[in-house]
Amino acid sequence: MRYSSDHKAKTHQRIIKEASVRFRRDGIGATGLQPLMKALDLTHGGFYAHFKSKDELVEKALQAAAAELDAHCEILFSQDRPLEAFIDSYLSEWHLISPAEGCPLPTMSSELGLRGQHSATTDAVLGARLQQIETALGDGQRDAQSPVMMSTLVGALVLARSVEDEALAMRIMDVVRDSLKNQVAEDEKAGQ
Fold first, then answer.
1. Which residues contact 183 (CB under 8 A, 6 or more apart)?
2. pTM beyond 0.85
3. Alpha-helical segments (H) within the chain
4. What pLDDT tens digit does each residue of the chain (192 aa) get?
């Protein structure tokens, strides 16, 4: 059977997209190459026609997730109250139950860190969010506040996703969301 000239490129992108979803949803270690390829009706051996290793796929999948997040954050940070929009979105019920579609930091960065596998893409994802937060904060304590805010958001989401009690998960999200938004409001008042 002959394939179109762009068949390999399209297949390559399909693998990256599916891996991006599975790595965020299930974790890197729990995502086997054979089930991944089977889900796409591809052979396990065919994987190596596209990637040298699983590590290469992890980086490409993280880049794909980062591009999705960048597009989403561009919309959020263009709103009138960008930090509130970002906080509300990050600590939303949708983000809680949709790790496959959300920020890759809560799922992938912790696993990469445990494996000792540093990623320039993780640096880029975090750097972009810190820059957006700092820009939205304006002058003052923005250099100190942006890493605290991002760490708090990621940590709250990780904890909320890990508890069995749904009410506790929502409480974590609600309390942290309100606390961060109150801090932003206080900082705005102090800056006026």
1. 145
2. yes
3. 7-26, 33-39, 54-76, 82-90, 93-97, 110-115, 120-137, 142-162, 166-191
4. 566 768 888 999 999 999 999 999 999 999 999 999 999 999 888 899 899 999 999 999 999 999 999 999 999 999 999 999 999 999 999 999 999 999 999 988 888 888 888 888 899 999 999 999 999 987 655 667 899 999 999 999 999 999 999 999 999 999 999 999 999 988 778 765
Determine contact, residues 108/99, Cβ cutoff 8 Å: no
Distance CA 77, CA 132 (A): 7
- Domains of the chain by start residue, with CATH: 7-191 (1.10.357.10)
